[in-house]
Amino acid sequence: MSNVIAVVNHKGGTGKTTTAINLAAGLTRYSDVTSSCLLIDMDPNGSATSSLLGKMDGEPPARSIFDVLRRAITPQDGISSTIYDENIDILPATPTLESMAKTQINDRLAKVISALSTSYGWIIIDTPPNLGVLTQNALVAADYALIPTQCSGLAIPPIRQIKDLIEKIQVRQNIWLQLMGVLITQKDGRTPLQKPVRRELGQVFPAADIFKTVITNNIKIEEAPANSQSIYAYDSGCLGASLYRDWIKKEFLKKHQRLEKKKVERQEAVEASKESAE
Ligand SMILES: Nc1ncnc2c1ncn2[C@@H]1O[C@H](COP(=O)(O)OP(=O)(O)O)[C@@H](O)[C@H]1O
Ligand SMILES: [Mg+2]
User: Fold this and answer.
1) Residue 194's pLDDT band (boundaries 50, 70, 90)?
2) Of 89, 105, 119, 131, whose CB neighbour count within 10 A is largest?
């Protein structure tokens, strides 16, 4: 079964796509879970799609997640291999995906993913900069929510809204959704992290849910996707590569293990209470 991670933040430019694609590449390199990975691009802007398919000219892919969600093709038929990484496939986005945002269907993606979940060790969902239907579909389908955020004070109010949405979905539609954590990105390397930002973030989420690794601004991180490469393939020795690598190896994978254990314990408790009710 796949581990499904939705990368969410309705503020634009917080590093969602950058984190989603470098996380995907990092997991195929550094995780013990089956190395194959599927990236699902739920952002009609398709920036992850452009990077992974190498189509910077804006030509939309022939088959996309939109066709899959409207059931014109099967999930398997929507998938493309990527020039980005031989172990990473993509369900690409097209601008037409935007029309899906007007529907009320929040569990379509979950159904698509359950049809694919034996084929990939990891499924990473990139989401658009809003908390509408497309992002909700991602959270309903996911095991984990990952929130990249910039470290300015302006970043805090949106974080509260995401937390509220996650809690609503945990109650109503996806009891297994867990918060993977908040990742601070794009910090100016020359100035120390604004203490109030961590403190304010800490008022929304417990410290254990805020990753200690902070991804600083690094020009290589910005350049790599335009070359259809992960930060590790583009320049494995640069600061950006070592920050993302350290975060994945030292924090993300360990947190994932802890949360998986918690999930199994909860599943056992649910089973036990079902049995005792019978
Ligand atoms: N750590 C970083 N260093 C330098 N540029 C970054 C970094 N993280 C993201 N960027 C750049 O910032 C912009 C917004 O990032 P992106 O990942 O597209 O955000 P989102 O998907 O949340 O809108 C992109 O141009 C990206 O290349
Ligand atoms: Mg994006």
Assistant:
1) low
2) 89
Best mutation site among 43, 50, 131, 222 for ligand 1, i.e. most ligand atoms within 8 A of its Cβ? Answer: 222
Domains with residue ranges and CATH for the chain? 3-277 (3.40.50.300)
User: In angstroms, what is the span from residue 132 Cα to ligand 1's centroid?
Assistant: 21
Q: Which helix (H) or strand (E) holds 101?
A: none
Q: Against a cut of 0.85, is the pTM above it?
A: yes
- 88 sits in which H/E element: strand 88-91
Tens digits of per-residue pLDDT, 135-166? Answer: 999 999 999 999 999 887 777 788 999 999 99
Give the orientation angle of helix 219-226 with respect to helix 239-246, to 10 degrees. Answer: 90
At residue 147, φ and ψ (nearest 5 deg) are -115, 105
CA dist 16 and 33 (Å) reads 23
222 lines ligand 1 (CB under 6 A): yes
pLDDT digits (tens, 9 = 90+) for 44-59: 999 999 999 997 776 7
Per-residue pLDDT, averaged over 197-202, amounts to: 82
Smallest-distance ligand from the CA of 150: 1
Q: For residue 274, report the distance from its CA to the centre of ligand 2, in Å.
A: 41
149 lines ligand 1 (CB under 6 A): no
pLDDT band, very low/low/confident/very high, at 18 (cuts 50, 70, 90): very high
